[in-house]
Amino acid sequence: MLLLQALSYSTIAVLFSLIFIGGYVSASGVGLTCPDWPLCPQGLLPHEDFIIEYSHRTVAATTSMLVIATMAFTLKSKAAPKAMKIASLIATGAVIGQITLGAIVIVERLHAILVTTHLGLGIVLFSMVLICAMYAHKLNGKKPVHAKAQ
Ligand code: HEM
After folding, report:
1. d(CA 43, ligand 1 centre) in Å
2. Fewest beta carbons within 10 Å, which of 48, 49, 57, 61?
3. pTM recorded for the entire structure
4. Could you read off the pLDDT of 26-42 as tens digits, one per residue?
């Protein structure tokens, strides 16, 4: 149970920083400093010319792994309620959508509708991860959903 809580809390913390970095990428106009996909011009190596965009992609990759891990542990958990399982599945769909959309945003050179959709899907993702974190918080010390009261 503690693992699922730690995972959910870490996911929301990392996702929050990703949204913060994404806002900074957009507001400071550095969205095309990594013009390629999926890697930046120097491959896996960061460089000061594109460090903000590089951070956005790196933190996005970390977030995706955390969201998928949260889903896997939520689905496995006997104590997790159905609503949490559904939220974790929607979060995984949203994170896959965000990565795909992120690539299209680059290929389409920051088309306004695509960037706005990227922001909107980010909000959906954040809401689902928040729901998971709230349910995980309530799970503390709870018995599995199907366990009989003695
Ligand atoms: C979980 C994954 C992701 C989330 C939650 C996320 C979230 C965000 C947010 C909230 C913004 C700010 C949007 C705005 O202020 O209008 C943003 C901007 C941006 N994101 Fe992501 N992002 C993710 C993944 C990616 C990926 C994988 C890429 C691929 C390159 C990407 C590329 C961009 C770009 C280029 C911008 C700046 C757009 C502009 O200059 O206006 N994002 N992201």
Report:
1. 19
2. 48
3. 0.93
4. 999 999 999 988 899 99
